[in-house]
Every structure is written in structure tokens, then in C-alpha cells.
């Protein structure tokens, strides 16, 4: 009796692992603005990739386009060319997935209490009930140390407290990306250092994705997990650097000072040849 051979088993090809898009991307981002003298190029073909939970710092001299890039990432101004994506989806304007904390202290509505200021965007977006908005506002304010100021009005707050409230307002909305435009630049040195420490602690706790603009090298090295260095006007990419996860205790350490010197050299030596 003959026995026929069983057909060889066939296997379907394994499905490719799904690629998780970055939290934020800018591809060949170019930004122009118009003056009486004509069109001026502010940013020239910059690429950015920000992974989930990363803290990317845009660093460069005044006028290099850092804040202009941030406004484009927020959707406040359109790109002249190139594209911006949040989790793989094109940015076409402002949205609750990206929230901005600015340098100016007076970002709060003066006729509303601190609690109401933080809860207000949630209510306007009609995402949650008044009770839930207040609860989220109180939780965010507790994280930035403002529980005692819930019922205070902005005029009663110091500059540092106003910035804490602005950060709480952004955190309460749970954005995909937090954008910060030199938020501590106008503060005195002690308050600035305290808020840097608070921001690092919040980033470790909440694991949010951050794009942070500064022109201070030591602040960039402290805050960032990666640095994107920009040339003088128009802003072009000079270099990128990953950093250690420094804390305030590391400021002044050999590793911190070494990276600070390296970044200083990249900014000033390379920029001179752009």
C-alpha cells in the first residue's frame, strides 16, 4: 500500500510590529514672516522628533526662531513649508493636544480665582462637568504647591505663583505635548531654580512630553533629555545632543559642566561659521 506524503505546512507571514509614531514631529519646517521690507525667513528647514515622555529643549541665541518654532508647533502660525505632526496626525491649528505656558506672568484671568482659572479651559472645551473640572484643577494645583491659593485672585500672587498656576492649568488639561516658551526667564534666580526643580519633579511623576525654549545653556542642560541647537537668524539646526537625566544636585558636577562647555562651544564656534 502506498502512502502519499502530507503536504508541507504553510505559514502566513508574521504581521509587522506596529510602529508607534513620535509624540511630535516637524519635518523640514520652514517659517517666514512678512515685514514692510518684504518676506523674512525666520526658520529654515528644521527637523524635530520628540518621543513620548522626552523633554526636548530648543536652545539658541535671541532671534534664532525658537519661539517662532514653538508657535508653529502649537498651531498658532502656519508653516511656510514642511509639516508638523502630533502622534502621526498633521497639525492644522491649535488644539487641546498641545498647550503652551508663556514667559509672561499675566496669563490668568484677573476676575477669576486660581481654581477657576485652571478649571476654565476644561469648562470651555465642554469636556467635563463643573465638579470634575474643579477636582482636576485642585489636583493640578496641589501638584505645583498652590493648594492654599485655590480661592486667591491673580493680583494676590507672586510672579512665581502665577507661573505655577499657568503650569497647573496646562497639566489639568492632560495634553499630549506641553510647550513652554522661556517660562522662567523673567523670574528672580531663587524662584527660577525652585520652579526648575518643580518642573523636573513633575516630569518624573507624570512622564509628560515637553518642548522647552530657552537661551540659557545651564537651564537647557538641566531641563532637557535632548537638546536641539539653533543657529542665529535664520534658525537652522546646528547640532543635537542627548543629555543625562540631570537633577539640581548635579549642577556644577564634572559631567554637568562638561556638557555645558560642549554646548557652549557648539553654539558659539559652529554659529560663527554658519
Automatic annotation (TrEMBL):
Keyword field contains Membrane: no
Entry superkingdom: Bacteria
GO-annotated molecular function: ATP binding; ATP hydrolysis activity
Keywords: ATP-binding, Nucleotide-binding, Transport
Family: Belongs to the ABC transporter superfamily.
ABC transporter domain: residues covered: 26-259
Name the UniProt record assigns to this protein: ABC transporter ATP-binding protein
Any Pfam family hit: ABC_tran
InterPro entries assigned to the protein according to its UniProt record, in alphabetical order: AAA+_ATPase, ABC_transporter-like_ATP-bd, ABC_transporter-like_CS, ABC_transporter_ATP-bind, P-loop_NTPase
PANTHER family: ABC TRANSPORTER ATP-BINDING PROTEIN, TAURINE IMPORT ATP-BINDING PROTEIN-RELATED
